[in-house]
Specification:
single chain, 183 residues, mainly alpha, two-stranded antiparallel ribbon, 4 strands
Length: 183
């Protein structure tokens, strides 16, 4: 009996030692893979933060053929597309600013709520502000309280009229300017 119990004890110890060795043997590669994956995810986070900030993102080096590699490839393509779109928008903005600054007429672009979205320098002079940038984002009512101008804007923003409206509006102030307004 003692011999059998000793043999059982040795077998149990061998099994436990085998389990511990197998667990350690499996844990080591799992830790290495987890560190690699974690480093790749950190690179992806750094890349996406740089893209979101508008900075040049760090290079991504896709490794292998897994989900993270596909994500890296897609993020690189998205960043490239976003840079191209931003460049195109910047070029269009430059063209629009050049056209507006070259116009003799004052131009205001107003949204449906009556907020000025775009203005040129001539419009700034008409409304006696230093720069067209001071007009942008302001409600038109803050810039001019002229009732005829406000009525014209209401008609256009409500969509009550499909054709352009042309009116002469006299701004009441020291110089009493009369403007021909097309909306």
């Amino acid at each position: 009996m003692t011999t059998i119990q000793d043999a059982r004890h040795r077998i149990r110890m061998a099994i436990w030692i085998g389990v511990v060795v197998a667990a350690l043997a499996a844990l080591w590669p799992a830790l290495i893979l987890a560190r690699r994956l974690s480093a790749r995810v950190v690179r992806l986070a750094d890349f996406s933060n740089a893209v979101a900030a508008g900075a040049e993102p760090p290079p991504l080096m896709p490794e292998g053929d897994d989900v993270v590699t596909r994500l890296e490839t897609n993020l690189r393509a998205m960043a490239k597309s976003l840079r191209a779109q931003l460049r195109a928008v910047g070029e269009e903005k430059g063209k629009l600013e050049a056209v507006l600054s070259g116009m003799v007429e004052g131009v205001l672009v107003i949204d449906r709520r009556g907020t000025i979205r775009l203005a040129n320098q001539r419009a700034a002079r008409i409304f006696r502000v230093a720069s067209s940038d001071e007009l942008i984002g302001q409600p038109l009512i803050n810039i001019s309280r002229d009732p005829d101008l406000q009525a014209l804007v209401r008609i256009v923003t409500r969509g009550e009229r499909e054709q352009p409206l042309v009116r002469e509006i006299t701004l009441d102030r020291a110089g009493r300017e009369t403007l021909r307004v097309t909306a």
